[in-house]
TrEMBL record:
<keyword id="KW-0109">Calcium transport</keyword>
<feature type="transmembrane region" description="Helical">
    <location>
        <begin position="122"/>
        <end position="143"/>
    </location>
</feature>
<keyword id="KW-0325">Glycoprotein</keyword>
<dbReference type="InterPro" id="IPR027359">
    <property type="entry name" value="Volt_channel_dom_sf"/>
</dbReference>
<feature type="transmembrane region" description="Helical">
    <location>
        <begin position="92"/>
        <end position="110"/>
    </location>
</feature>
<keyword id="KW-0967">Endosome</keyword>
<dbReference type="GO" id="GO:0005765">
    <property type="term" value="C:lysosomal membrane"/>
</dbReference>
<feature type="transmembrane region" description="Helical">
    <location>
        <begin position="253"/>
        <end position="275"/>
    </location>
</feature>
<feature type="transmembrane region" description="Helical">
    <location>
        <begin position="429"/>
        <end position="448"/>
    </location>
</feature>
<comment type="similarity">
    <text>Belongs to the calcium channel alpha-1 subunit (TC 1.A.1.11) family. Two pore calcium channel subfamily.</text>
</comment>
<keyword id="KW-0107">Calcium channel</keyword>
<keyword id="KW-0106">Calcium</keyword>
<feature type="transmembrane region" description="Helical">
    <location>
        <begin position="45"/>
        <end position="63"/>
    </location>
</feature>
<feature type="transmembrane region" description="Helical">
    <location>
        <begin position="544"/>
        <end position="567"/>
    </location>
</feature>
<dbReference type="Pfam" id="PF00520">
    <property type="entry name" value="Ion_trans"/>
</dbReference>
<keyword id="KW-0406">Ion transport</keyword>
<dbReference type="GO" id="GO:0015280">
    <property type="term" value="F:ligand-gated sodium channel activity"/>
</dbReference>
């Protein structure tokens, strides 16, 4: 009946608007049962369960054999790692696989059979599950004694396929590879030419004592190529040139030319190309996200215009405002946006909305998130008004910064004076006394600011919350110190009592005081700009961090399988003297870890690693250091330039905070889709039949 159709249209509009908010595709089933399943799948509970499952299956590598989950990485002192019994981690894996099977089944059903065959990610998802389950069965049949587990390398795929932004980022990286390959090829030519020159310059001579450079670094073509490749990373600089430089200073010209051309020119050229190309492809990706949002909003308009109570008009469609209000009540969206749209809807005097009015309402989704700080208290007393003016003035904050700087300087002076003293000779009276004075000032400053600004306004500023939290912690620690050790006095060196000694308590207080000095950042505009840029990267570019986790995880698991037990005692004896002090020696000779790139490159320069293994380390260097670091630099530059331009064109407002997503970074240069493009895409929807 008409009522059932209207309910269906309302539910379709709700889902389409939620798709638009999350930049999701609307190409899914739109019948009543499918819409219920769709909303259930994208509910917070289901997505939380899926995220938890992905986290658990990735974390299994920390306890699976071979496990390196110990307190210390030093093989001389660490206890044997705990190895779970066969079947424990496999049972957890099976539960995770069951969740993933439900996940892929629901996704496949919702998109429909026709769309399923077009979706490469879903097909890869199913293939990954089949391979993982097969490997899981093989593992159990061998009673968990097999050394190679293919499914461990495939685990990062579950993280990758669950994020649409990570997929877009990966697609952008893939599109940028041809341009990056040209510079990498130029680097290879540069490396090959200088390798030939090196083999000619440092050829073997009759005098064996003068052939140290040839013997250690340039004995043959593979060793020469490896030495210069490691020099390109600066991991063996200046060790690689010391023997030749000791023989003749003129040899340094060769190494200087190689480093200048490779590091200063070619590597920076690679950064410039990656920045230019990747920004373009990321812009295209964000453009497609904008198209998805506009398409979702337009689809919601079309289904709402099909309601029975909607006015019939052959020329133009309209949406009833009451129906839209009913939809907005059920839509899961940010409360700020919902309130703004409802306000605009109530201000509209008409009962029907045209397509232009409908789309204009939802432009609120594209605006910066603006948060107003609560107003200050309105005191009636003249005296309180003067107090509020004095302690709410920015100069009072500047005074607090000066006091904090004086506190840091006094701590530095005491630490320098007591640096060479034994604990028994140290007098903690002066440091304890000045800490007591400054903490009391911090407490007084916090209370006066709360009095002037009001508690709600005070807590609305992140810098004040940071400042106040540390002040409370410092006060609690100081009270605990006085309760245990008494008040400071000359010769204040009591014996150890309780959990922490007096010196430990004083050191903890001083570390927090030093950390508290970061409060000056909001008062220094340029420093605040840099810090907010970094914070925005942390908040908005989680997709890039996710891909970084995928790369690290895959290489770490591969390294464990390839090099477990490969570093034997002969190599340890051979490199312990030359390697000690270069990097964490004992970190290398535990199980392979992905954070020892420098150490591994140094070993490469000493030619102590199997030649075939060099392929693995060079691939790791290319992907992690050359490609990924440059991508991160490109995004950092884009975010910083964007914030700098906005800083130059907009006056800062003290009571307003702006928060932008990565999509809004490019909002000024994006093109709005045309009416024809939207309607053409809607008519191609595999499950939605429009009335016109």
């Amino acid at each position: 009946g008409a009522g059932a159709d209207n309910d269906l249209y309302i539910n379709q509009a709700i889902v389409f608007i939620e798709d638009a908010i999350q930049y999701r595709s609307i190409n899914h089933r739109v019948d009543s049962k499918s819409l219920w399943l769709y909303r259930w799948y994208y509910s917070r509970t289901c997505q939380w369960i899926l995220s938890l499952t992905i986290t658990i299956i990735l974390a299994l590598a920390f306890i699976e054999k071979p496990s390196s989950l110990t307190v210390t990485s030093d093989v001389r002192y660490r206890l044997p790692a705990w190895n779970p019994p066969c079947g424990l981690t496999e049972s957890i894996e099976l539960l995770c696989f069951l969740v993933f099977m439900v996940d892929v089944s629901v996704k496949s059903y919702l998109v429909g059979w026709e769309e399923f065959w077009k979706n490469k990610w879903l097909m890869a998802y199913i293939l990954t599950l089949i391979v993982s389950l097969t490997d899981w069965i093989v593992s159990l049949s061998f009673l968990c004694t097999e050394n190679v587990r293919i499914r461990r390398i495939l685990r990062p795929f579950f993280l990758l396929q669950n994020s649409s932004m990570m997929k877009k980022t990966l697609k952008s990286i893939n599109s940028t590879l041809p341009e990056m390959a040209s510079v990498v090829l130029l680097l290879a030519v540069h490396l090959s030419l200088f390798t030939m020159f090196a083999m000619l310059l440092f050829a073997r001579t009759k005098d064996g004592q003068q052939d140290k450079e040839w013997m250690v670094y340039f004995r043959n073509l593979p060793d020469s190529l490896t030495s210069l490749l490691v020099l390109l990373t600066t991991a063996n600089n200046p060790d690689v040139m010391i023997p030749a430089y000791s023989k003749n200073r003129a040899y340094s010209i060769f190494f200087i030319l190689f480093t200048v051309l490779g590091n200063l020119f070619l590597m920076n050229l690679l950064t410039a190309i990656i920045y230019n190309q990747f920004r373009g492809y990321l812009l295209k990706s964000v453009q497609s996200s904008l198209f998805r949002r506009r398409l979702g909003i337009r689809a919601a308009f079309e289904v709402l215009s099909s309601l029975k109570e909607a006015p019939a008009n052959a020329q133009q469609s309209y949406v009833n405002t009451g129906a839209l209000q009913q939809v907005l009540q059920k839509v899961e969206m940010d409360s700020r946006c919902k309130q703004a749209i409802m306000r605009s809807l109530k201000m509209c005097s008409c009962d029907q909305l045209s397509v232009a009015q409908f789309q204009k309402l939802f432009e609120e989704l594209d605006k910066d998130a603006i948060r107003q700080h609560p107003p200050s208290p309105d005191y009636q007393s003249r005296f309180m008004q003067k107090i509020q003016f004095a302690f709410g003035h920015p100069y009072f904050g500047y005074l607090g910064n000066v006091v904090a700087l004086a506190n840091i300087v006094s701590i530095c002076v005491v630490l320098v004076m007591d640096a060479d003293k034994q604990p028994s000779e140290r007098d903690d009276f002066f440091l304890g006394a000045i800490n007591c004075f400054f903490i009391l000032y911090y407490l007084l400053e916090m209370l006066l600011k709360i009095l002037a600004m009001g508690l709600k306004r005070y807590l609305s500023y992140p810098s004040n919350r940071f400042d106040g939290l540390l002040t409370v912690i410092l006060l609690v620690l100081e009270i605990a110190t006085f309760a245990v050790y008494g008040f400071p006095h000359p010769g204040w060196r009591p014996e150890f009592i309780g959990l922490l000694s007096l010196w430990d308590m004083v050191r903890l207080v001083n570390m927090l005081i030093v950390f508290r000095f970061l409060r000056i950042i909001p008062n220094m505009k340029f420093m605040a700009l840099v810090v907010t840029t970094l914070l925005d990267l942390v908040k908005n570019l989680r997709a890039f961090a996710g891909i970084l986790v995928v790369v690290f995880y895959a290489f770490a698991i591969t390294g464990i399988m390839l090099f477990k037990g490969a570093v034997i005692s002969v190599y340890i004896k051979k490199v312990v003297f030359s390697f000690k002090g270069k990097c964490g020696f004992m970190d290398l000779f535990g199980y392979f870890q992905a954070d020892v790139t420098y150490c591994l490159l140094y070993l490469l320069s000493l030619n102590l690693i199997c030649r075939w293994a060099k392929i693995y380390f060079v691939a790791w260097w290319l992907i992690s250091s050359v490609i990924w670091v440059n991508l991160f630099v490109a995004l950092l530059l884009e975010n910083f330039i964007h914030k700098w331009d906005r800083r130059c064109h907009r006056e800062p407002l003290s009571d307003v905070e702006y928060q932008r997503t990565v999509e809004l970074m490019f909002r000024d240069v994006l093109e709005e889709p045309t009416e024809e493009e939207l309607m053409e895409k809607l008519h191609q929807h595999p499950h939605l039949q429009l009335c016109r």
